[in-house]
Amino acid sequence: MAFKTRSFITQIASNKILVLNFILLIFIIGCKKTAYEEPEISLDSYQIEDGFHLEVAVSEPFIEAPVAMDFDNQGRMWVVEMKGYMRNLKGIGDEMPNGVISIMEDLDHDGVADHSKIFLDSLVLPRAISHVYGGLLYAEPPNLWFVDIENDKPVNRVLVDSAYADGGNVEHQPNGLMMHLDNWIYNAKSKYRYQRKNGKWKKEPTAFRGQWGITKDNFGRLYYNTNSVQLMGDYVLPNVTDKNPYFKGGAALNKRLTVDQRVYPLHPTSVNRGYVNGVLDKDSLLVNVTSACGPLIYTGENFDANYYENAFVCAPEANVVKRKILTFEGAKVSARQAVAETEFLASTDEGFRPVNLNNGPDGNLYVVDMHRGILQDKVFLTSYLKNQYAKKALDTIVGMGRILRVVKNENSSKDIINVETLSTSELVGLLGSKNGWLRDRAQQLLVFKNDNDAISLLKNSALDTQNAIAQIHALHTLNGMGQLDFKTLEMLLSSESKTEVLNHTLVLLENYAGENNLVSVVPLINGLVKRNNAELDLYILNTLGGWAQVSTENVFPILFELSNRYAENVIYQQGVISSLRGVEEMYKTLLDEEKSAVSQHMLKAILDKTILNKQSNKKKNTEVKPAMSNTFGYKIFRNFCATCHGFNGEGVDDLAPPLENSEYVTGSTKRLALVLLHGLAGPVHVNGTLYELNGTMPGLANNPAFTDLDIKNIISYLHSTFSEGSKGINVEQIKALRDVKPKSGGVFSEKELLELGY
């Protein structure tokens, strides 16, 4: 009996050990990091600059045809998937509601997304997103929408703008949605900016900028490009200059920053007008960009100092990403090729279509690779390129898409911070971070939360001259919260702050222009004038407008001194005009009395034109409205012509010349028809000015969407709007002109049209 009892006890003990071992096994399995199957994407065909390597952050089957992305406060990638774009050579299906905005998740935390979930679906060609105000702003033409986010689901959808993308094809519609330092949201291919204040959305005019993609540097200058210009930008902060409603200046805006537009692809690539002389070299390699897009100023913290605030630019038609080094000289900015005849990132994979770039919360650079064989939209797709696509079977590259991560070899990625969980003091501390993404997102959250506990911390940061970047962010955070005050700005003007901080201070100070503040401000500004700092002087000239309304007696001497200091520089003279809004005649009287050199030259000419426009109430940015008889032509003009020539026919820098008083509109109707049908390449002369544009105006003859009647309607609208009358043309004449083709088989040149007698 004793034996049996001992055996029973031994068995119980043995069972307990088994149970304990089982529990331990479960515990070990539970603690082990779960691994998920992730697609393996070969990057063997890619070359990247020495010292860097590429990583696949997410790829098909989790995403398809990505065109834009953003990171949420947790650091997750949100991707805009334009699945309907050019799935075949005919572009059939682009109106299908198959676009989505999806959330990428990396559940095993290995840096590669292993899950995706749809946030929004049934979208038609979506193109941009931005995490702002605790929700998501997104563009689905023609609308701009905002939704709150609850448990990764959209709620409370609000229509922000029903005319956000009013007209134009995919290549020529607004995009970007970039929250700026000034708490406004800016766009490319647009003349408007947006902001939500007290629960209500505001829309304001701004300068028209670029085509696809927009970015900014640490100071706040905006950068963008057109398809044929790698990098453009503003010399000044947005909405600072060109504020006079009766004068369209723009000498400091929309500047071409790159001297040449060369690209260096690794292999012959298919481009839309490869048949035109000079587009390809003797080895069939593309010479200059034709589809530049998605620029980015790198403001991360993982690259070497030599890469900080470099400009990176996508050239998807060449399968490359370029790197440009920015140079700041006084008020001007320029950019040059970083490494001679070599691109930062290039591939022989013709499916590699980099279309956008992003700074990441981990300090790295992210490349949005649409990975689609057909890049050119059907509206402007030439027969030449269509044949190239078919020959290479590029139309079979569909259903793919990647987000690539660019990493510096010796620098490990920083841990991603969930900024949503940070305290107010921690967020204020991030305003001085070396990581631009963290700075920007911290500012957004502070403004959105509007926590009073942040006010004193922000004022201390704004006055701390040890970190200029933190000062600038703190100032605009206070302004966004409605907590900025005149005393803080007054203290900054008399501080030892860097020029960049003083420039932002001057911009914000103009909002406080009034008699009570004038007495202390004038001596401070005069003190800044004595520094003889070219960059500071430019901001003084452009921010005296509010003060001039209060006292011309105090302001005119400052304007006069600085105007004479830069008498032959149009940027500074336009700054004077910008601040003279409302008191132009009084300043002209001063110039006439002084008899100074400047009064007889540049400024006087600009001032006279402004006064003349004012007397005739000719304001800029007032859209030309069509006569009822030209409604059909007007609609076509807005959708396809205005995107390059401007809604008032004023022309767009580095895209297209003006139509107002253009010989191509006022002259031969047949010449105008030939240009519309078969296209035109520069250089061209318009109203006595030579326009040496890199791009080419495409013809509409090969596009079945445009009938002869459509061409007639466009001509009718152009004549009635931009010339004094029309010589008329009928549908039969237009049909006959379809057979009058350029000798090259491409587009017309100005010389060839003249030789034809047009």
Task: Describe the fold and architecture.
The structure is a single chain. The chain is α+β, with helices and mostly antiparallel strands. The chain is built from 21 helices and 31 strands. The strands form 9 sheets. Strands 1, 19, 20, 21, 22 and 23 form a 6-stranded antiparallel sheet that branches. Strand 11 and strand 12 form a beta hairpin. Helix 13 packs parallel to helix 15. The longest helix has 30 residues. The chain is globular, with a radius of gyration of 29 Å.
Unreliable parts:
1-10, 26-33
Q: Specify the number of helices.
A: 21
State Rg: 29 Å
- Note the overall shape: globular
Oligomer: single chain
Termini Cα gap: 122 Å
Largest sheet: 6 strands, antiparallel
The total count of strands amounts to 31
pLDDT averaged over residues: 89
What proportion strand? 15-25%
Structural class: alpha+beta
Short structural summary:
With 758 residues, this protein is α+β, with helices and mostly antiparallel strands. Strands 1, 19, 20, 21, 22 and 23 form a six-stranded antiparallel sheet that branches. It has a four-stranded antiparallel sheet with strand order 2-26-25-24, with no helix packed on it. The protein has a four-stranded antiparallel sheet with strand order 3-4-5-6, with no helix packed on it.
